[in-house]
C-alpha cells in the first residue's frame, strides 16, 4: 500500500473537546471497517484549523471514498514519496 497525507480544513478543530475528537475518530474507524483492508488510518495531527492525517491505502480513490462516506473534508491528498528523519541525515 501507498502512504498518503490528507489535509483537512476544519475551522476551530483545535478547540474541539476530547469527547468531540473521540466521536470523529469513532466515525472514521466505522467507515474504515466498512471499506475493508485496502485502507488504514495511521495517525492524525490536530492544529488550530486543520487536521493532517496519515493513511496507508491502495490508491487516492480509497482516501476520497473514506472522506465522502465519513463526511470529512479532504482538501488536499498527497502521496508520500520518501521519508526522511534524523536517522538518515
CATH superfamily: ORF SCO4226, nickel-binding ferredoxin-like monomer
How many structurally independent domains?
Answer: 1
* Residues in β-strands, percent: 25-35%
Q: List how many beta strands DSSP finds.
A: 4
Number of helices: 2
Order of helices and strands: EHEEHE
What's the CATH C level? Answer: Alpha Beta
Distance between the ends: 25 Å
Shape: globular
| Lateral arrangement of strands in the main beta sheet | 2-3-1-4
Instruction: Bin the helical content.
Output: 25-40%
The name of the CATH topology is Alpha-Beta Plaits
Major β-sheet, in short?
A: 4 strands, antiparallel
Can you tell me the residue ranges where pLDDT is under 50 for at least 5 consecutive residues? none
Instruction: Indicate the CATH architecture.
Output: 2-Layer Sandwich
Secondary structural class: alpha+beta
Q: Kindly report the average pLDDT value.
A: 96
